[in-house]
Write a structure and sequence with these properties.
Elements lengths: L2 E3 L12 E7 L5 H15 L10 E6 L5 E3 L4 E4 L12 E6 L10 H12 L3 E6 L1 H8 L7 E2 L5 H8 L4 E2 L4 E4 L2 E4 L4 H14 L1 H10 L24 H12 L7 H7 L4 H11 L4 H19 L4 H7 L5 H12 L3 H10 L16
Helix pairs in contact: 1-5, 2-3, 5-6
Length: 350
């Protein structure tokens, strides 16, 4: 069962300072979409009037009159949208890439035309996948939600991925991790085209303490302790985003403009453990959460958490938790835990 939503344009201005086409694809995330729409609504008029005076937006989907979101709500859209040059930005919302992922021919053609005409393209959340599939991103790093970086790599191969930033803009293409980051992006566009006063209004009306910058690191709740040292904290956040892949400590130190030995000393002085030790504990934390909260195989969990083999994973896991992964899963099935406190063992002792 689904619901249908129609968004109506009220008293559009003949010449708004900002025009945006919003292209929806089946399975798009309603939260990211709503965040963008609400910012545009607040920036469009004084107070809460909702008139599209300062900015105008059009919902569209070439070849379709309704698009269903991931939560089952249908949105009415323009089946025959105007030419892409009608807009300053064309913002795309879509579903997460995966097996049999595809973008309809009409949508591909529309995106390619927009790119050729130098309309700025923005892929929000799964919308970035549509830009990759269409070929408009080229070798530009694509900003994605940290949770979905493996989905992109499995679907598109070895494309450059940015799973740290909230959003990024390069060569006329914007990609955004989605979720609350869509709000930060929308407010930044409002500030760019309408001025800081309108951006400030949006921030205050949406009860935001601050508007985060594009390179603000995505929050990945693996390490739960407080870290006072900014360099060490940033190193831990970078590690969190790379836990599913091999981590080169020399490259990590270089990205922080610090020597490897100096970084090692900071970890031991501030966290009480070496870098490799912390990486192992963080991967084990991810693994035990997956074991308890998913039906994925132990092999799949081991490899996705950065362990080279399931045998190595089983050995390290048992040494840390005192039980094998299979035993933990069986215990969970027999006695579902209220809190996975054991998963945080060793991670908050700084």
């Amino acid at each position: 069962m689904s619901s249908t939503m129609t968004l109506t344009m009220h008293n559009p201005s003949p010449d708004p300072a900002l025009t945006i086409g919003i292209l929806l694809l089946d399975g798009f995330n309603l939260t990211s979409f709503s965040n963008i729409i609400d910012v545009l609504r607040l920036a469009g008029d004084k107070g809460l009037g909702g008139r599209q005076r300062n900015c105008r937006w059009t919902l569209l989907a070439p070849g379709n009159s309704r698009i269903r979101s991931s939560c089952g709500i249908d949105i009415a859209v323009e089946k025959y949208p105007p030419a892409p040059t009608h807009f300053d930005y064309l913002i795309v919302f879509g579903n997460t890439p995966g097996e049999d992922y595809f973008v309809e021919k009409q949508v591909r053609a529309y995106l390619k035309t927009a790119h050729a005409e130098r309309v700025v393209l923005a892929g929000i959340g799964g919308g970035a996948a549509a830009l990759v599939a269409t070929g408009v991103t080229g070798r530009i790093p694509v900003c994605v939600h940290w949770y979905h970086q493996d989905d992109y790599l499995r679907t598109f191969g070895a494309i450059p991925i940015d799973a740290e930033s909230l959003f990024r803009e390069e060569a006329g293409v914007i990609t955004c991790a989605g979720g609350a980051a869509a709000t930060d992006l929308a407010i930044s566009l409002v500030g760019r085209h309408l001025g800081p006063a309108w951006a400030d209004k949006c921030q205050r009306m949406m009860l935001l303490d601050q508007v985060r910058k594009p390179d603000h690191i995505q929050s990945v709740p693996v390490y739960q302790g407080e870290i006072a040292c900014p360099v060490t904290k940033r190193a831990v956040r970078k590690i969190e985003h790379q836990l599913t892949m091999p981590i080169n400590i020399d490259d990590l130190a270089k990205s922080l403009n610090i020597g490897r030995r100096q970084l090692e000393r900071k970890f031991r002085a501030i966290l009480g453990k070496g870098i490799h030790e912390l990486i192992r504990e963080m991967r084990l934390h991810m693994a035990i959460e997956n074991i308890r909260n998913s039906d994925r195989t132990i092999l799949d969990i081991a490899l996705s958490c950065g362990f080279p083999t399931v045998e190595h994973f089983n050995s390290v896991f048992k040494a840390h938790y005192g039980h094998t992964p299979t035993q933990i899963r069986q215990q969970t099935l027999e006695h579902p835990p209220c809190k996975s406190t054991e998963a945080y063992q060793g991670l908050t002792q700084a």
